[in-house]
Amino acid sequence: MITCKAAVAEEAKKELVVKEVTVGPPQAGEVRVKILYTGVCHTDEYTRSGLDPEGLFPSILGHEGAGIVESIGEGVTSLEVGDHVVPLYIPQCRDCEFCNSSKTNLCGKIRSTQGIGVMPDGTPRFKDKDGNELYHFMGTSTFCQYTVCPEISLAKVNKEAPLDKICLLGCGITTGYGAVINTLKIEEGSTVAVIGLGGVGLAAIMGAHKSKASKIIAVDINPGKFERAILFGATDTLNPLEQKGKEMSELIFEMTDGVGVDYSIECVGTPHLMKQSFLSTKPNGGASCVIGVAAAGQTIDLSSEEVMGREWTGSAFGGTKSRDQVPELVDDYMKGDIKVDEFITHNFPLDDINDAFHAMHEGKCIRAIVKMFDDE
């Protein structure tokens, strides 16, 4: 057993409590990782805020981490002590029907146990100081100084890569960038609209720019985000609130000579924006991708006439085959082919992790990095 600190979500709608916990040794097929840095993502807040109907408490949140392998369980062959890793909330077993399919990245190997906050054998590895069990989160729980993950939920990465930067490739950047590269496969010369300019949206813009899109419209109601969007490759900006009485899709059609965009990507998570994003695409061959997650029970209504001629798809973790492609993204970052540092706007020590959530709500934070150990 290891005793360390973790930020525990004791109940919904309450701030996290940094407290002492114990972390059990890795069992067969598992790996224990010393987490050095973690990002704070809107998905963490979605659960903490109580909006997630499947949220479990008390739990250790966090899913944008990076660290070093501390110990391995029986049967682990792809990792060894000292390896640098990025935990993966979507595993890749490389063996199931879904891993062997080119149509999806959603490995089904441990989905049932991951969804109920335990390890594949049905038990947790976390306990508080009184011996009470704590739930795991998304199979990663990176808000703990040490975490235990299945071997198939860890990407081995270049040891030269800075862990305080590449932790972000565990979710947001990979999600937005991958939606463009893997899911939509945007072609050179295409026109693109990206709705929502948080970390995921900026990464989608980066992907569109990398794909040599001819027009990239960055959409947000916070004009303070436009300068950064242009840095990432946006050619045009749109604040729908500035033109009352017109829907976002109408404005995008006006910006594209009345034809709409080839591709749109919704990164906010509201049904109205999902619909408007879809309707902003060309009615004869446009395609829209939903990344944002709407609150439970919310639905979207579209007529058959609106759907006809367009394609609609979703994307989880950017369609990324996690263990194969995350190391490639780390290498791309090291070569300067993709941006990572530019997403980071705030840094906090673990004891101040709640300030990272506050910064997120203030609208000025793209990504906050939490340093897990004071002396590292």
From TrEMBL:
Key words, A-Z: Metal-binding, NAD, Oxidoreductase, Zinc
Residue stretches making up the Enoyl reductase (ER) domain: 11-370
Gene Ontology MF terms in the entry: S-(hydroxymethyl)glutathione dehydrogenase [NAD(P)+] activity; zinc ion binding
GO annotations of cellular component type: cytosol
Cofactor(s), by name: Zn(2+)
PROSITE patterns: ADH_ZINC
Listed Pfam families: ADH_N, ADH_zinc_N
Swiss-Prot/TrEMBL GO biological process terms: formaldehyde catabolic process
Family: Belongs to the zinc-containing alcohol dehydrogenase family.
Name of the molecule in the record: Enoyl reductase (ER) domain-containing protein
Source organism: Euplotes crassus
